[in-house]
UniProtKB/TrEMBL annotation:
Residues 21-111 form the ParB-like N-terminal domain. This is ParB-like protein. One of its GO terms (cellular component) is nucleoid. It is found in: Cytoplasm, Nucleoid. It comes from [Clostridium] methylpentosum DSM 5476.
Length: 277
């Protein structure tokens, strides 16, 4: 239990490193690379009650950024709970690190504590790669995950934010989400998320359900392709219809024009013949 620590004077910023010190809550700023975006209010209130009663059991981790501010690396949830508990100061460990390493540490801390949902984790890894110019291979080494695992997590971001929220609200898992990635039609994705959640399908059942949908879509696609490939049949049908009308005494004519991007087929039927019909 940590209720106290070394007091930091106004002129000692940056001089106390790797020691537990008390820092005013008002002087700590959030990490711009903080991967966690969703916080359960009930859990925060519960943690706040515990902190009010027992103090903070594990110090927060901060660094001095370029503006000489105490920037949070690890402990966002504890900081928010301390603010709810109206604590003036919190125990922290000040470490020397740059912004890039701070982003890595913030992600690692959340992953190790399993504080992130799988979409937040994917976004954090993507941010690490894009914002800090980290390769997938380097991210794999730093996070202790196989490169294929990193690639699979990044694929989750093909689902838009609304779809992600629907998946989380339905209580589906990362493996459910990966199965849903097989679908491309947004409307179908929404229907599948609702159905899988409502029926409480496990991952295997979900995969079988989606495979069935894809097979049906493939059948429809084949039928469509077959029809499109048989355009000549349509043209022959038109020609036979013209011949039939001509044999019946109708002065029908058809003219085919080949353009650069299409074929024009013009059919002319005299007005008097059309009115007589």
């Amino acid at each position: 239990m940590l209720r106290g620590g070394t007091k930091l004077g106004i002129f000692s910023k940056g001089k106390v490193v790797n020691k537990v010190v008390l820092i005013p809550v008002s002087e700590i700023v959030s990490n711009p690379a903080q991967p966690r975006t969703l916080f359960d209010l009930e859990e925060l209130q519960s943690l706040s009650d515990s902190i009010r009663e027992n103090g903070i059991l594990q110090p927060l981790t901060v660094r001095l950024n370029a503006r000489s501010q105490y920037e949070l690396i690890a402990g966002e949830r504890r900081l928010k709970a301390a603010q709810i508990a109206e604590m003036k100061e919190v125990p922290c460990i000040v470490v020397e690190t740059d912004a890039k390493q701070s982003a890595v540490l913030a992600l690692l801390e959340n992953i190790q504590r399993q504080d992130l949902n799988f979409f937040e984790e994917a976004k954090a890894i993507s941010n690490l790669i894009v914002e800090w110019n980290v390769t997938q291979e380097e991210a794999s080494k730093r996070l202790g995950k196989a490169q294929s695992t990193i690639a699979n997590k990044l694929r989750l971001l093909r689902l838009d934010e609304k779809q992600q929220m629907k998946i989380l609200d339905a209580g589906l898992t990362e493996r459910h989400a990966r199965a849903i990635l097989k679908l491309t039609d947004p409307g179908m994705i929404d229907k599948v998320i609702y159905y899988v959640g409502a029926k409480r399908l496990n991952v295997k059942q979900t995969e079988e359900y989606i495979d069935g949908i894809l097979k049906e879509q493939q059948k429809s696609k084949r039928k469509y392709i077959h029809v499109v490939k048989d355009v000549r049949l349509f043209l022959n049908t038109i020609n036979r219809a013209i011949e039939t009308m001509q044999n019946a005494g109708v002065a029908a004519k058809a003219e085919k024009r080949e353009q650069e991007d299409c074929i024009e087929y013009i059919v002319r039927i005299p007005i008097e013949n059309y009115k007589q019909s």
